[in-house]
Amino acid sequence: MSRSVEATRRRLNEERMSNDMETQPGQIFTSSSSSQPGQEPPPGHQTLEIELDSPLKRNFKALLVLAVSVYGLREAKLLENLLWNKRVGSTALAVAVAASSVFVLLWAYLDVYVGTVQGQKVGYPEARRVTHTLLLSLLLTLVSLTVAIWPVYQAAALVYVCMVSYGVMFQVVILLPASVYNPLFFCAYAGFVYMWIR
């Protein structure tokens, strides 16, 4: 799946590059620069809307969400409370760690062993049961994490769990390639489990 995404990105970049070569300086059209409403720019000229929709803009949005989430989690002292606050539900946190361990092991099996070592295509039809188990373990992790931190944060626990899952993890997956975020997530997970056990 990632190869097809990369191929599509590459093709779109090549098309944009060829359009850039055909456009001469000062010939960027916007909908307001047209002499008549609804008039399309001449062929070979790019519009301002195409220029503004760039990977830099998408990465900026992801970086902004990541920065706000990290700042919010740091201000809430979520990691410190998870590790050392006595009000955090220890049973629910243990369930969250166990479910995330299942998630990490299945993810490593699919991505590292099947995808990289064996070189097989990893997709939903080929790994339906493993994908369902991954989703269930992720859901169990998020629900039990919410239950664990509820005594400390009450309703804000929902916001903090969303910041962890969407604001940090999902944005890192968007910004970094798999060869970087897989070891990064594994090291962060192993570090958390080590500090939690100690």
Write the layout of secondary structure elements.
Elements: H1 2-22, H2 48-52, H3 55-76, H4 78-84, H5 90-117, H6 128-153, H7 156-175, H8 178-197
Task: Characterize the structure shown.
- Residues 22-35 have low confidence and may be disordered.
- By secondary structure, this protein is mainly alpha-helical.
- It is 75% helix and 0% strand.
- The protein is globular, with a radius of gyration of 23 Å.
- Helix 3 packs antiparallel against helix 7 and helix 5 (90-117) runs antiparallel to helix 6.
Number of helices: 8
- Please state the structural category: mainly alpha
**What is the radius of gyration?**
23 Å
- Strand tally is 0
User: Are there runs of 5+ residues with pLDDT below 50, and where?
Assistant: 22-35
Helix content: over 70%
Overall mean pLDDT score? 82
Shape summary = globular
Report the end-to-end length measured between terminal Cα atoms: 40 Å
The secondary-structure element order is HHHHHHHH
What composes the largest sheet?
none
Share in β-strands: under 5%
Name the descriptors:
198 residues, mainly alpha, 8 helices
Summary of the model, kept short:
By secondary structure, the chain is mainly α. The protein has helices spanning 2-22, 48-52, 55-76, 78-84, 90-117, 128-153, 156-175, 178-197.
